[in-house]
Amino acid sequence: MKMITAIIKPFKLEDVRNALAEFGLSGMTVAEVKGFGRQKGHTELYRGAEYIVDFLPKVKLEVAVTDEQVDGVIDAIIAAAKTGKIGDGKIFVTAIEQAIRIRTGETGNEAV
Hints:
Order of helices and strands: EHEEEEHE
Mean pLDDT: 90
Strand order of the largest sheet: 2-5-1-6
Distance between the termini: 8 Å
Structural class: alpha+beta
Number of domains: 1
CATH topology: Alpha-Beta Plaits
Shape: elongated
Helix content: 10-25%
Oligomer: single chain
């Protein structure tokens, strides 16, 4: 089992959710986060004053999948989230040692 964590632009969330639903995933966790990478933020004007926005709004998406689903999920996220511009985000894949569904007690792939 793997945990796929994707940091994407907020306006791409619905596209990614739809792509993952088409792939057959039934659940995910989403959180609004702030951060920066190579973008290094940007400058904005507010009431005539210039200020620097260091942390940009992003969406963090987490999906637990079986080993067989990893490549398909990654491809779906990339296809839906890519704009071709800086700040499109990152995808991280980490191993899950154990998963347990609290309601039924199922473990392993059945819990995912």
